[in-house]
Amino acid sequence: MSKVIRIGTRDSELALWQANTVKNKLKALGHKVKVISVKSTGDLILDKPLYEMGITGIFTKTLDVAMLNDDIDIAVHSMKDVPTALPQGIVQAAVLERANFLDILAFKKNEEFLGERDAIIATGSLRRKAQWLNRYPTHTVVDLRGNINSRYQKLVDNDWNGAIFAAAGLERIGLEPEETVGLTWMVPAPAQGAIMVVAKEDDEFVREACAELNHEPTDICTKLEREFLRILEGGCSAPIGAIATIDKENEVTLKGVLLTVDGKKKLEAEFTAPLGKHTYLAKDCANSILSRGGKLLMTYKEGTLENTKIFSTKNLTTAQEELFDADIKVKSEDFIKISSNRISTIILKKEIQNIVLTSQNAVEALIKSISPEELKFANIYCVGGKTKRMIKKYIGPVKHQEKDAKKLAEYLVEYMEGTEVTYFCSNLRLDDLPTILAENNIKVNEIEAYTTKHAPADVEEGVEGVMFFSPSTITSYLLKNTPNKVAYCIGETTATEAKKHFETVHVAKIPTVESVIELVNQAYGKN
């Protein structure tokens, strides 16, 4: 063992920690080891987001060259930074046992901004940005570059609400802010939390030495995640996430996600197989996403759709877009921005006899504000099948459901026990329900569970029809556009508002997005 194994690494605190971890493990096995640090292109260019630089392997390329030039024997990387295709002559030598793979949000002051419309979040990762905007579409995401220490300092120095980091990175260097939230809903980067060792393919001595460091469960999981990434042909320039896990029963589960760069559209897939029969999980996951419009998502850019015939005032999923007949060109954008309000737990912990929920947004605001187990609602009344299903899933049974607020109010007047209801609503709620109840001497306690804000956009003159999903979307549309088009409405309440402005109004038979799409197809099928 006379050979000294030279470990190449970036010179950031985190990279050096990782290199020294490998160094100590090799020394414990009796090897002579030396650490050599160099700067990478990714460390030197800090004025551009990574995805704008058009380079994959930006943090590994310098070390690849050093290894091929025989200046170092192995290189140690955060595995998520390593391209799925290694340079010719360089191979994976080991993967260390994975640390915490979660993304975490470090924030200042408090978490109240999570329930507010406006907030500023910092991250240099397109994957994190896309997933954040998918969940919080009204927030602003700003670019954050540099090593982990400088990124955290920028959070301290700037007027941002929070910044997103890899939990493993903060933990490894002991930089763990007190105010953090684990983003369990955010799918991490493939191989996040894992440390990878690479070596020259023809250096048998070094490869055998590193093989003793390999952690097989981590190796299995990260291979699946990176294979999923490879099939989707993504890199630093695509919002792709993946995480594989092995449970106590030796069942392997892989979850993958692909988003558009603006976070407006998302496709997910999750597959499970017994250990030993898991090798096709990556292919199955990737193909599931590709078959549902994944290629379109990877090339999607706002405003690129030409000859648009139909405009939707609500963002459509890829699966929904595929329901339109082939000759119908569709563009969609949210004309209403929704943000949950933080509801006082003092109110929510009280025993309340009658609750009214007229949208899924209200349900989401409730479960964001308090653990559903703490709610003491005796009777829950709601509008819409989807709202009912969401209530049953997260809160409990529904006493009665109607298809619109007016019909629900009429039902309550006739059958409700008691003379008081608590109505969790939007700041832009319709008057029908509270007016009918008040006229019948039923007290309505209104609580603004979420905020609705108009977000109109200019619709091209050539668009022939517009899809509306609430009276608020009509109001928002008219702020910037004229009613010289056909209106396709999700229900009677929306249609009633549309008829005040549009000459031709069509109403879906069932109050679902898919039913409105069917309405459009039927209208064009008659032409």
UniProtKB/TrEMBL annotation:
Reactions that this protein is recorded to catalyse: 4 porphobilinogen + H2O = hydroxymethylbilane + 4 NH4(+)
Annotated signal sequence range: none
Regions crossing the membrane: none
GO cellular component: cytoplasm
Pathway terms, separated by semicolons: Porphyrin-containing compound metabolism; protoporphyrin-IX biosynthesis; coproporphyrinogen-III from 5-aminolevulinate: step 2/4
Biological process, per Gene Ontology: heme biosynthetic process
CDD domains referenced in this protein's UniProt entry, alphabetically: HemD, PBP2_PBGD_2
EC number: 2.5.1.61
This protein's UniProt keywords: Porphyrin biosynthesis, Transferase
Start and end residues of each Porphobilinogen deaminase N-terminal domain: 5-207
Porphobilinogen deaminase C-terminal domain residues: 221-290
Molecular-function annotations in GO: hydroxymethylbilane synthase activity; uroporphyrinogen-III synthase activity
Superkingdom field: Bacteria
InterPro entries (UniProt xref): 4pyrrol_syn_uPrphyn_synt_sf, 4pyrrol_synth_uPrphyn_synth, HemC, Porphobilin_deaminase_cofac_BS, Porphobilin_deaminase_N, Porphobilinogen_deaminase_C, Porphobilinogen_deaminase_C_sf
Domain called Tetrapyrrole biosynthesis uroporphyrinogen III synthase: residue spans: 347-517
Any single Pfam family the record assigns to this protein: Porphobil_deam
Function, in words: Tetrapolymerization of the monopyrrole PBG into the hydroxymethylbilane pre-uroporphyrinogen in several discrete steps.
Protein name: Hydroxymethylbilane synthase
Organism of provenance: Zobellia amurskyensis
Organism phylogeny: Bacteria, Pseudomonadati, Bacteroidota, Flavobacteriia, Flavobacteriales
